[in-house]
Amino acid sequence: MNLKQMTVKAKLSAGFGVLAAIVMVVSGLSVKSLNDSTERFSSMSRASARALTWRSVFGPSSIGASSLLITSYY
User: Fold this and answer.
1) Angle formed at CA 74 by CA 43 and CA 66, multiple of 5 degrees
2) Roughly what angle, to the nearest 10 degrees, separates helices 63-73 and 8-58?
3) What is the pTM of this model?
4) What is the Cα–Cα distance from 37 to 21, expressed in whole angstroms?
5) What is the rounded end-to-end Cα distance, in angstroms, of the chain?
6) How many angstroms separate the CA atoms of 67 and 48, rounded?
7) Which of 5, 11, 26, 28 is most solvent-facing, going by the fewest CB within 10 Å?
8) How far apart (Å, rounded) are the C-alpha atoms in residues 14 and 20?
9) What residue spans of the chain are helical by DSSP H?
């Protein structure tokens, strides 16, 4: 069907349909990105908790060793 032959109602409906599809794609990508960020934050929290556990085991003089554990994790 030619664009010139379409009625105004059909053109508007197609335009809103395209916009709705774009919004759905952007929303899906946003949810995926937020999910990935949450997973990375959880991973960092677990690594930090492990480092704090190592600090409590070895004492405050071993801060360098626990920092090494954090940096070697990533």
Assistant:
1) 85
2) 150
3) 0.56
4) 24
5) 55
6) 9
7) 5
8) 10
9) 8-58, 63-73
